[in-house]
């Protein structure tokens, strides 16, 4: 799944392409719809760079590898892409996979721009080779916790599966809500059926349930069970990780999937570039683009700028992160050091808490911004 290079350079010749490795989940158990949006944004940006003449006369070529949300598969892909001579890596949606990618890329001296994985500890030790576009989990989930607090939810339940990402989210919610008198009870989805979760929610007197679980299983049957339990008619269902963003959620749940607040990394208004890109992505995807598609586009935009200004030497590219100043689809992108974050970080992308409108589930409502 490579984007073919456009013929640029002098007439009758094709300059050798500059290769960028793209890591995306395109098969289960990966979040396939997120991977498709991410890749579409990347491919659009590559096409536009090549249509404008490439990088110093050389076309960009996207070398795509499917991670399927598997860290070992992703590590093998990083090794392969390094052997193929890619200038840099980008992509990945799943935090547990991105953490493996970051560690392997760092060990190989390969620049990696993480587009969409939010786990704070993307690397165990600070590194100059890794940068990140999306906000750190501690930043976005603090905003989500503030939304819950302002909406009057002090007794929060989370239903979880074993994962460092879900465990981190549970810890962050506790840390942010406790000083305001809030409590968070964790329910293990590996031990409870959907009906047992409903019973536990009643027993705990929870006013909000957050889905820290995979999609579509077990999130979809759990939502259906809660929606049909009359004892929980006033319960708020939330999904900070963004499950309701994608069309599959609405297709599977219909009206039951509305009014489920989630985090979305979009501004109130896109930049002029973002407005143009939104139109192009909508045609490409045949549906409204998610924020993940914009992350893909912005990732290639940043890497193209670094290649233009600093060349293809991997060490020089890694040194360039703090010098980036690029107009993206959602604002001006630059990287800095943030306390507690071991990679170069865009601080911060815009963050919204959004849900699907019960009156029109195909339309989103912005409930809170941070």
Please describe the biggest sheet, giving its number of strands, its sense, and whether it closes into a barrel. 6 strands, parallel
Q: Roughly what is the average pLDDT, rounded to an integer?
A: 95
Instruction: List the uncertain runs.
Output: 3-11
Q: Termini distance? A: 37 Å
**Helix coverage percent of residues?**
25-40%
SS-based class: alpha/beta
Number of helices: 11
The overall strand count is 15
Order of helices and strands: EHEHEHEEHEHEHEHEHEHHHEEEEE
Please tell me how large the radius of gyration is. Answer: 21 Å
> In one word, what is the shape?
globular
Strand content: 15-25%
Could you please describe the fold and organization of this structure?
This protein has 370 residues and is of the alpha/beta class. It contains 11 helices and 15 strands. Helix 5 links the parallel strand 6 and strand 7 (183-188). It is globular, with a radius of gyration of 21 Å. The model is unreliable at 3-11 (pLDDT under 50).
Brief rundown of the structure:
This protein has 370 residues and is an alpha/beta fold. It contains 11 helices and 15 strands. A 6-stranded parallel sheet has the order 2-1-3-4-5-13, sandwiched between helices. It has a 4-stranded parallel sheet with strand order 7-6-8-9, with helices on both faces.
Question: What is the secondary structure topology, with strand pairs?
Answer:
Layout: E1 18-24, H1 32-51, E2 60-66, H2 71-83, E3 88-91, H3 95-108, E4 112-114, E5 130-132, H4 137-150, E6 155-160, H5 164-177, E7 183-188, H6 194-204, E8 208-212, H7 219-227, E9 236-238, H8 247-253, E10 262-264, H9 272-285, H10 291-310, H11 314-319, E11 326-327, E12 332-333, E13 344-345, E14 352-357, E15 360-369
Parallel strand pairs: 1-2, 1-3, 3-4, 4-5, 5-13, 6-7, 6-8, 8-9
Antiparallel strand pairs: 10-14, 11-12, 14-15
Helix pairs in contact: 1-9, 1-10, 2-3, 4-5, 6-7
């Amino acid at each position: 799944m490579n984007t073919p290079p456009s013929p640029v350079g002098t007439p009758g010749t094709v300059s050798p392409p500059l290769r960028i490795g793209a890591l995306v989940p395109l098969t289960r158990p990966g979040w396939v719809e997120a991977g498709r949006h991410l890749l579409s944004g990347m491919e659009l940006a590559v096409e536009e760079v090549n249509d404008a003449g490439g990088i110093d006369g050389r076309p960009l070529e996207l070398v795509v590898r499917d991670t399927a949300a598997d860290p070992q598969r992703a590590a093998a892909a990083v090794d392969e892409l390094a052997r193929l001579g890619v200038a840099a890596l980008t992509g990945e949606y799943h935090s547990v996979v991105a953490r493996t990618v970051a560690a392997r890329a760092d060990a190989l001296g390969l620049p990696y721009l993480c587009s969409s994985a939010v786990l704070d500890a993307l690397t165990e030790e600070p590194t100059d080779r890794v940068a990140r576009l999306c906000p750190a989990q501690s930043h976005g989930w603090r905003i989500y916790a503030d939304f819950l607090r302002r909406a009057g939810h002090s007794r929060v339940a989370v239903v979880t599966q074993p994962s460092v990402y879900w465990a981190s989210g549970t810890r962050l919610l506790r840390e942010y809500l406790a000083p305001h008198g809030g409590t968070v009870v964790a329910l293990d989805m590996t031990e409870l059926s959907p009906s047992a979760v409903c019973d536990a929610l009643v027993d705990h007197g929870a006013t909000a349930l957050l889905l820290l679980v995979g999609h579509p299983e077990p999130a979809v049957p759990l939502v259906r069970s809660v929606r049909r339990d009359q004892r929980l008619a006033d319960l708020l269902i939330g999904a900070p990780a963004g499950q309701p963003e994608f069309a599959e959620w609405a297709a599977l749940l219909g009206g039951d999937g509305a009014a489920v607040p989630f985090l979305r990394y979009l501004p109130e208004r896109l930049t002029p570039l973002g407005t143009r890109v939104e139109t192009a992505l909508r045609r490409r995807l045949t549906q409204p683009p998610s924020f993940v598609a914009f992350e893909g586009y912005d990732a290639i935009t940043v890497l193209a700028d670094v290649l233009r200004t600093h060349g293809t030497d991997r060490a020089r590219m890694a040194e360039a992160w703090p010098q980036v100043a690029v107009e993206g689809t959602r604002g001006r992108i630059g990287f800095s050091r943030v306390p507690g974050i071991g990679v170069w970080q865009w601080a911060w992308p815009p963050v919204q808490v959004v849900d699907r409108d019960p009156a029109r589930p195909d339309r989103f409502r912005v409930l809170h911004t941070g």
